[in-house]
Amino acid sequence: MTFRRRLKNYEPLIAILLFILLFVGYRMFARGSLDFTEAMLDFMAGFFIIFGTFKALKLPKFVEAYRMYDVVAAHSNIYAYIYPFIEVSLGLAFLFRFDIVPVAWITLCLMIINSIGAWHGARDPHIKMCACLGTVFKIPMSYVTLGEDITMAVMAVMVLLAYM
After folding, report:
1. Could you tell me the pTM of the whole model?
2. What is the structure's pLDDT at 1?
3. What's the whole-number mean pLDDT along residues 4-20?
4. Which string of DSSP letters, residue by residue, matches 26-86?
5. Which single residue of 26, 45, 78, 83 could bond 94 by disulfide (Cβ 3.0 to 4.6 Å)?
6. What is the per-residue pLDDT for 33?
7. For residues 139 and 131, what is the distance between their CA atoms, to the nearest angstrom?
8. Which of 151, 155, 127 has the alpha carbon at shortest distance from 141?
Protein backbone atom coordinates (compact mmCIF):
# COMPACT_ATOMS: atom_id res chain seq x y z
CA MET A 1 0.00 0.00 0.00
CA THR A 2 1.40 3.38 -0.99
CA PHE A 3 1.97 6.19 1.47
CA ARG A 4 -0.69 8.31 -0.26
CA ARG A 5 -3.28 5.54 0.08
CA ARG A 6 -2.41 4.93 3.74
CA LEU A 7 -2.65 8.67 4.39
CA LYS A 8 -6.09 8.72 2.76
CA ASN A 9 -7.29 6.23 5.42
CA TYR A 10 -6.50 8.83 8.07
CA GLU A 11 -8.03 11.90 6.38
CA PRO A 12 -10.94 12.17 8.87
CA LEU A 13 -8.54 11.91 11.79
CA ILE A 14 -6.20 14.52 10.30
CA ALA A 15 -9.12 16.88 9.59
CA ILE A 16 -10.40 16.56 13.15
CA LEU A 17 -6.95 17.14 14.64
CA LEU A 18 -6.52 20.25 12.46
CA PHE A 19 -9.92 21.49 13.63
CA ILE A 20 -8.88 20.97 17.26
CA LEU A 21 -5.63 22.87 16.62
CA LEU A 22 -7.64 25.75 15.12
CA PHE A 23 -9.83 25.73 18.23
CA VAL A 24 -6.73 25.85 20.44
CA GLY A 25 -5.29 28.69 18.36
CA TYR A 26 -8.53 30.63 18.61
CA ARG A 27 -8.63 30.17 22.40
CA MET A 28 -5.01 31.31 22.71
CA PHE A 29 -5.73 34.36 20.54
CA ALA A 30 -8.90 35.18 22.52
CA ARG A 31 -6.96 34.96 25.80
CA GLY A 32 -4.06 36.93 24.39
CA SER A 33 -1.77 34.33 25.89
CA LEU A 34 0.64 31.69 24.68
CA ASP A 35 0.32 29.64 27.87
CA PHE A 36 1.29 26.05 26.97
CA THR A 37 -0.68 24.46 29.82
CA GLU A 38 -3.84 26.33 28.84
CA ALA A 39 -3.31 25.21 25.23
CA MET A 40 -2.96 21.59 26.37
CA LEU A 41 -6.18 21.82 28.38
CA ASP A 42 -7.96 23.24 25.32
CA PHE A 43 -6.53 20.50 23.09
CA MET A 44 -7.61 17.79 25.51
CA ALA A 45 -11.06 19.37 25.77
CA GLY A 46 -11.51 19.43 22.01
CA PHE A 47 -10.09 15.94 21.58
CA PHE A 48 -12.34 14.29 24.15
CA ILE A 49 -15.50 16.17 23.21
CA ILE A 50 -15.16 15.43 19.50
CA PHE A 51 -13.89 11.86 19.78
CA GLY A 52 -16.45 10.98 22.47
CA THR A 53 -19.28 12.47 20.41
CA PHE A 54 -18.33 10.46 17.33
CA LYS A 55 -18.23 7.32 19.46
CA ALA A 56 -21.70 8.04 20.83
CA LEU A 57 -23.28 8.65 17.40
CA LYS A 58 -23.44 4.96 16.57
CA LEU A 59 -23.15 3.62 20.09
CA PRO A 60 -23.98 -0.09 19.54
CA LYS A 61 -21.52 -0.34 16.62
CA PHE A 62 -18.86 1.49 18.66
CA VAL A 63 -19.34 -0.96 21.56
CA GLU A 64 -18.96 -3.91 19.20
CA ALA A 65 -15.72 -2.53 17.71
CA TYR A 66 -14.30 -1.30 21.04
CA ARG A 67 -14.85 -4.61 22.84
CA MET A 68 -12.62 -6.34 20.30
CA TYR A 69 -9.46 -4.73 21.69
CA ASP A 70 -10.05 -2.73 24.88
CA VAL A 71 -9.04 -4.72 27.96
CA VAL A 72 -11.82 -3.38 30.20
CA ALA A 73 -14.58 -3.20 27.57
CA ALA A 74 -13.88 -6.82 26.63
CA HIS A 75 -15.06 -7.79 30.12
CA SER A 76 -17.68 -5.09 30.76
CA ASN A 77 -20.43 -4.22 28.35
CA ILE A 78 -21.53 -1.39 30.66
CA TYR A 79 -18.06 0.20 30.50
CA ALA A 80 -18.08 -0.02 26.71
CA TYR A 81 -21.46 1.74 26.58
CA ILE A 82 -20.55 4.56 28.98
CA TYR A 83 -17.01 5.13 27.66
CA PRO A 84 -17.97 7.76 25.03
CA PHE A 85 -19.81 9.71 27.72
CA ILE A 86 -16.79 9.50 30.02
CA GLU A 87 -14.71 11.05 27.22
CA VAL A 88 -17.23 13.85 26.61
CA SER A 89 -17.36 14.51 30.37
CA LEU A 90 -13.57 14.70 30.56
CA GLY A 91 -13.58 17.09 27.61
CA LEU A 92 -16.14 19.35 29.24
CA ALA A 93 -14.20 19.30 32.51
CA PHE A 94 -11.02 20.33 30.69
CA LEU A 95 -12.89 23.00 28.72
CA PHE A 96 -14.42 24.58 31.83
CA ARG A 97 -11.33 23.91 33.98
CA PHE A 98 -13.36 21.88 36.48
CA ASP A 99 -11.35 19.86 39.04
CA ILE A 100 -8.35 19.63 36.72
CA VAL A 101 -6.17 17.44 38.96
CA PRO A 102 -8.68 14.59 39.47
CA VAL A 103 -9.75 14.84 35.81
CA ALA A 104 -6.11 14.58 34.71
CA TRP A 105 -5.63 11.50 36.95
CA ILE A 106 -8.72 9.86 35.46
CA THR A 107 -7.46 10.73 31.98
CA LEU A 108 -4.05 9.24 32.72
CA CYS A 109 -5.57 5.99 33.98
CA LEU A 110 -7.95 5.69 31.02
CA MET A 111 -5.24 6.43 28.49
CA ILE A 112 -2.92 3.83 30.00
CA ILE A 113 -5.71 1.26 29.78
CA ASN A 114 -6.49 2.37 26.21
CA SER A 115 -2.80 2.16 25.29
CA ILE A 116 -2.67 -1.47 26.38
CA GLY A 117 -5.74 -2.25 24.26
CA ALA A 118 -4.39 -0.28 21.29
CA TRP A 119 -1.06 -2.11 21.54
CA HIS A 120 -2.81 -5.47 21.41
CA GLY A 121 -5.23 -4.28 18.73
CA ALA A 122 -2.47 -2.98 16.47
CA ARG A 123 -0.64 -6.30 16.73
CA ASP A 124 -3.72 -8.49 16.13
CA PRO A 125 -4.30 -9.05 12.39
CA HIS A 126 -7.96 -9.92 13.04
CA ILE A 127 -8.75 -6.42 14.31
CA LYS A 128 -9.12 -4.22 11.26
CA MET A 129 -10.93 -1.12 12.52
CA CYS A 130 -10.13 1.36 15.25
CA ALA A 131 -13.05 2.63 17.30
CA CYS A 132 -11.28 5.93 18.10
CA LEU A 133 -13.85 7.88 16.06
CA GLY A 134 -16.59 5.38 16.68
CA THR A 135 -17.75 3.68 13.51
CA VAL A 136 -18.72 6.90 11.73
CA PHE A 137 -15.37 6.82 9.92
CA LYS A 138 -13.42 3.72 8.96
CA ILE A 139 -10.04 4.35 10.57
CA PRO A 140 -7.72 1.32 10.41
CA MET A 141 -6.40 -0.12 13.66
CA SER A 142 -2.72 0.73 13.77
CA TYR A 143 -0.01 2.18 15.92
CA VAL A 144 -1.53 5.61 15.22
CA THR A 145 -4.20 4.70 17.77
CA LEU A 146 -1.51 3.79 20.27
CA GLY A 147 0.19 7.11 19.54
CA GLU A 148 -3.03 9.02 20.25
CA ASP A 149 -3.48 7.27 23.60
CA ILE A 150 0.14 7.73 24.67
CA THR A 151 0.06 11.40 23.63
CA MET A 152 -3.04 12.00 25.75
CA ALA A 153 -1.44 10.15 28.70
CA VAL A 154 1.71 12.29 28.41
CA MET A 155 -0.42 15.44 28.25
CA ALA A 156 -2.30 14.32 31.38
CA VAL A 157 1.05 13.89 33.18
CA MET A 158 2.16 17.35 32.02
CA VAL A 159 -1.11 18.85 33.32
CA LEU A 160 -0.61 17.08 36.65
CA LEU A 161 2.93 18.45 36.91
CA ALA A 162 1.69 21.95 36.12
CA TYR A 163 -1.14 21.85 38.69
CA MET A 164 0.50 20.01 41.56
Report:
1. 0.91
2. 60
3. 86
4. HHHHHHT---HHHHHHHHHHHHHHHHHHHHHHTHHHHHHHHTTT-TTTTT-HHHHHHHHHH
5. 45
6. 87
7. 8
8. 127
